[in-house]
Structure formats: structure tokens, C-alpha cells
């Protein structure tokens, strides 16, 4: 992926254009029968030095391109300041040359000032256009970087959605149910099928309704309860009025999976997870009962954080104390394109 580079202007362009402007400014002197070669050189040197000054002034001070963005408007206060500084510097150059080369025949000061304003406008226009092109390329690089981050988050999400361990455990549970002729085996197969069908249908969506997410979660929870029996329970206390808010798909499933990964789930110590709404947040809460030897990598929560930051530009909130662990995910009320 291309890196963002600092704004720069080719030194060949700066020096080459300054020499060219000096040559163009000397053309009238070539047709003046009273002009000497030394007069042409002295007058040209004023234009050359002025052009260099204006180039570097605009590059580094109009604005400081390496630290902040500039306005897209061509005419602004910085142009006015540039013209004033240019007029002042031209006066300095003319006076200095008159003092150093009193023998030379020089153009009238007003001609130098008019020439300086024209050069100032031309250089400012070039720098302005070059910087706008730089900003466009910079935004392209930033967009590409954002796309790469989003693709990485989606890939991580997909790996967790079709978790081989979860599938392996589910098939083992199904085998055990079939071996004992459990009458719920057919329902288990249907729920497992529903869950993976939801996975395939929803993986390309950015946002889905909370009520649709809960439907996916119901199938997932059914599979978990078949595995853990009374050792796992999900209490759904979401207010009905929040069912039409939107969240990224499989957010709740990932949070439930994260709870199971880091907490003891057993008949002796059941894991009870609460799902409820609180203001503009959907909250997943569980009592902390950590497993021994399980280190948190933060991958699951990082994945969710990246998706929320990319899709709705909001952050999830995590609250933790000695007893409870809460993850509060912001809900979207307005319509987004899926």
C-alpha cells in the first residue's frame, strides 16, 4: 500500500521556471539600442531572485503544507499576504540593485512591481494546483488504507463467524444427541442450518435491524444450550422500541462468543448473560468468572471496534469492575445503505 508522502515541489521546476521568467523579462531590453549586456543581466537578476523567493515563500508559508490542509478556494487571505510580501521584497531588490549598480540603466520601479505581482499570481496558481493534486492523491491513499482495514476486519469477522471450533463442537453435540436418540436432534440440525444460512446471507451487509440480529442470535443460543444445557443462559431484556435500530451483523454473536471464551460455563457455575437496551446503547453484560490459563488477546473486541468506527463513526464502550463486565454498543437510528 502506498505511503502518504510530504508535499514537495520539484527543484527543477522552481529553478527552471525562475530562469525562464528572468529570460522573458529581459527580452524588451534586447530590443533597446541603449541597453548594455550588463543592464540586461542586472535587470534579469532581479526577476530571477524575486521568482525564487516567491516560489519558496508559497511552498513553505502559503500554507505550511506539511502540517495542515489549505482551503480549496483559490482567492483567500493567504494570496493577499503573499502579494504584500512580494511587493515588499521587490522594493528591497530594486533598491539594493540601484545602490550596488548605480551605473546600470534599470527599468522604472513601477514596471518591476507590476512584473512582481504577475509572477506572484502565476506561482501562487501553480503551487495551489499542485497542492490540490497532492491532497487528492493523499485522500486516495487514506481511502485505500481505510478499505484495507475494513477488509481485514471483515476477514477476521468471517473467520469468527464460521469458527471451526464452534462447528466441531456443534457436530460433536449433534452426534451425542443422535447416539442417545434425543428427540431434539432434528431441531438442532434445523437451528444449525439456520445459523449458517444467516451467516451467508448477512456477511455482505453493513448494518441489519436489531430484531434480525436477535433472530440469528436465537439460533446460536439454541446450539449453545444444547451443548452447555443449564450451564448457559441468555436473558433478553431488550425494549421493544429498540428492535428497529441497526447494528453491524453478528455483533451480538461475537460478544456472546467472547463471554464463553473467557468465562467458566458449567452446571455448577452457570454463565448468565444479560442483553438489554440502555438509552442509545445495546448492552451485553455478564458476571465475571474467569477461566484459568485463558489470556485475552482482545481480537474479538478490536474487530467490533474497527467495524463500528468504519461504518458509523462511533465507539463501543467497555465497563469492567470486579464483578461485572459490560460492552455497550451504539445503535443507529437513521437509515444506512446496506
Automatic annotation (TrEMBL):
Residue ranges annotated for the Signal transduction histidine kinase internal region domain, each copy included: 153-230
Keyword Kinase included in the entry's annotation: yes
Pfam families according to UniProt: His_kinase
GO molecular function: protein histidine kinase activity
E.C. numbers: 2.7.13.3
Enzyme superclass (EC): transferase
TM annotation in the entry: 12-28, 40-58, 79-98, 110-131
Keywords: Kinase, Membrane, Transferase, Transmembrane, Transmembrane helix
PANTHER family, per the entry: SENSOR HISTIDINE KINASE YPDA
Listed name of the protein: Sensor histidine kinase
The keyword Nuclease is assigned to this record: no
